[in-house]
């Protein structure tokens, strides 16, 4: 009877006496008194060799670890020296990361830019829109102490000289292995994390490397994940010599799980698994020790996402669970025990209930177990949760399809969960943002309306375009059985505003007769969106030049090309230009593409287009499409 009322035997004491601490809370108290694996306790299997920033700025050619060590230019990092900067990047060749200094010249340029008179590294557009109170990084923090750069090619052993003995070769390889296993520690010891993502061609000129391809590379995914699992989660994305933005929205940084990334060496995927599992356990224990039960619950249930691609059990940090004493189905009993919930109807201080955390986990057995206890499948969150980038009034169904837990989504729909629930993030919108075509099919089969708008007037197609979710966009088009009513012009603008402006998506929308020269009008999206846009441009009017304020200020009458240039989406800009975007069109404030380019250092192919030479943009657009299809 207790379970039917949403209570376990433990929680029945709430009615007749003082509340007892849950096993989770008691374990958290023990951790406060014990020594656990913290950031400082991470094992460094190979010394963290770094290059002083002054030396990096003087590099004129890429030199491997062994050469720099022999020249005495590398230092073994220690906190007493200053601050470390971890640089994550893609390799342009199979045997050399950057033979022509294409990426390194951008890294040198952006360091020079950041260390000059720039006051603040701005928060990126998405983080500013989704994370309340998000603030940029004062560059004074970069200048406060000497900087030392970790970059894999000169920080990890590289050479394997075939003339040396087999034993020495084995030792050389073992050093590299130890350095690779130390990457989580290197990330944790670094005060700053830079994702170096300029748009460049690889060595063979057969593929284009972009911010999107960075999110697809397995090792880059892993490095980003290690940052996400450290105490300092924010990182800086670098797209050009003058474009550096602070990412503080975990959903944006979550990207593709490392287990689903692409690896040059297939065995590296399995090698990462124990490192990821250890990182998850550390951050879970850190949250418990700090009594941050909300952060703990979020990370505990996101394990299924972080470890996607691996066949393994999830961490269960709280010891002492007994299957024999569990009065509930096993999966549900473990869930309640590990999450520290006593009641199925409980709402924690973050405004989330057990069902919402179960939606993060995505285990259908847990979701079905909660539904069997008469939990309301349509209950929405009471507050926003910045750790997963979700606003208030988000449903469990919306969370399930966002994190691609489609079996759990079916269980909710079978329990009469409303497919249109949620003011800002209804399920169809979150499925589109996550590029989840199966989730879209599930929702549409349940009667979801394709053209339904959220609170500010956006439809799911705009969400798919904003994140470059090409599979989701194709599914929306298939469900619509045509595109007459889909308002494709605004979709191009939303793609260019955010980070979804891939060549493939632009070409597809243009193929569907979207106008590359359409002028954006926020009031035509909806009256609420117009108000939203007007309010967010006010800081720009008063001198606070954030990314969101600048976009809002310049949005009226802007073309997709202007948005792409404002957001440093060079792949999208080149594709717009090659598709016939006019270079002379100005927004309602009289700003043209040429005006924007005077403020930033754009790639040569974009600058050449401004002078009438479109060949470079056409080549980049074609190469970007080919690279995408080969992923």
Structural description of this entry:
The chain is of the alpha/beta class. Among the domains are: 42-262, no CATH class; 348-455, Ankyrin repeat-containing domain (Serine Threonine Protein Phosphatase 5, Tetratricopeptide repeat). It is 47% helix and 6% strand. It is built from 33 helices and 11 strands. The strands form 3 sheets. Strands 2-1-6-3-7-10-11 form a 7-stranded mixed sheet. α18 runs parallel beside α20, α21 (437-445) runs parallel beside α23 (470-480) and α22 (460-466) packs antiparallel against α23. The protein starts with 22 loop residues before the first helix and ends with a helix. The relative contact order is 0.08.
């Amino acid at each position: 009877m207790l379970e039917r009322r949403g209570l376990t035997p433990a929680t029945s004491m709430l009615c007749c006496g003082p509340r007892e601490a849950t096993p989770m809370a008691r374990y958290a108290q023990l951790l406060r008194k014990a020594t656990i694996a913290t950031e400082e306790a991470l094992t460094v299997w190979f010394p963290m060799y770094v290059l002083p920033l002054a030396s990096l700025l003087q590099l004129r050619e890429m030199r491997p670890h062994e050469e720099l060590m022999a020249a005495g230019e590398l230092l073994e990092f220690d906190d007493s020296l200053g601050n470390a900067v971890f640089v994550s990047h893609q390799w342009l060749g199979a045997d050399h990361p950057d033979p022509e200094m294409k990426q390194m010249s951008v890294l040198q340029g952006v360091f020079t830019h950041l260390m000059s008179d720039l006051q603040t590294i701005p928060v990126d557009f998405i983080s500013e829109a989704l994370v309340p109170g998000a603030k940029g990084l004062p560059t004074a923090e970069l200048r406060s102490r000497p900087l030392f750069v970790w970059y894999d090619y000169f920080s990890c052993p590289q050479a394997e000289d075939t003339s040396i003995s087999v034993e020495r070769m084995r030792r050389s390889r073992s050093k590299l292995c130890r350095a690779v296993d130390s990457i989580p520690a290197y990330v944790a010891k670094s005060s700053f994390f830079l994702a170096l993502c300029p748009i460049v061609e690889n060595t063979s000129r057969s593929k284009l490397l972009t911010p999107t391809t960075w999110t697809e590379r397995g090792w880059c995914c892993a490095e980003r994940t290690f940052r996400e699992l450290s105490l300092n989660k924010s990182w800086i994305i670098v797209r050009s010599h003058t474009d550096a933005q602070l990412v503080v929205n975990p959903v944006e940084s979550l990207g593709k799980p490392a287990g689903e990334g692409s690896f040059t060496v297939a065995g590296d995927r399995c090698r990462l698994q124990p490192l990821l599992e250890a990182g998850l356990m550390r951050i879970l224990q850190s949250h418990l020790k700090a009594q941050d039960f909300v952060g703990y619950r979020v990370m505990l249930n996101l394990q299924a996402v972080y470890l996607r691609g691996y066949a393994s059990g999830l961490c269960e940090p709280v010891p002492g669970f007994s299957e024999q004493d569990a009065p509930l189905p096993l999966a549900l009993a473990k869930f309640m025990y590990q999450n520290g919930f006593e009641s199925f109807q409980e709402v924690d201080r973050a405004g989330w209930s057990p069902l919402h955390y179960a939606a993060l986990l995505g285990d259908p057995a847990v979701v079905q177990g909660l539904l069997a206890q008469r939990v309301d499948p349509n209950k929405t969150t009471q507050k926003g949760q910045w750790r997963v980038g979700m606003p208030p009034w988000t449903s469990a169904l919306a969370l399930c399809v966002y994190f691609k837990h489609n079996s759990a989504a079916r269980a909710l729909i079978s329990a009469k969960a409303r497919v249109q629930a949620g003011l800002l993030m209804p399920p169809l919108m979150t499925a589109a943002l996550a590029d989840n075509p199966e989730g879209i099919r599930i929702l549409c089969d349940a009667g979801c309306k394709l053209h339904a708008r959220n609170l500010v007037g956006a439809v799911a197609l705009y969400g798919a375009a904003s994140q470059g979710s090409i599979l989701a966009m194709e599914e929306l088009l298939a469900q619509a059985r045509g595109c007459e009513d889909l308002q494709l012009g605004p979709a191009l603008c939303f793609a260019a505003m955010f980070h979804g402006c891939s060549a493939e998506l632009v070409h597809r929308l243009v193929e569907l007769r979207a106008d590359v020269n359409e002028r954006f009008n926020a009031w035509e999206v909806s009256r609420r969106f117009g108000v939203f846009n007007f309010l967010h441009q006010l800081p720009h009017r008063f001198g606070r030049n954030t990314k969101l304020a600048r976009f809002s200020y310049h949005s009226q009458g802007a073309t997709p090309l202007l948005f792409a240039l404002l957001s440093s989406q060079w792949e999208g800009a080149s594709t717009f230009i090659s598709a016939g975007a006019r270079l002379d069109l100005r927004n309602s404030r009289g700003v043209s593409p040429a005006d924007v380019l005077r403020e930033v250092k754009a790639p040569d192919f974009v600058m050449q287009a401004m002078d009438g030479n479109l060949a470079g943009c056409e080549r980049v657009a074609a190469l970007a499409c080919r690279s995408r299809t080969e992923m």
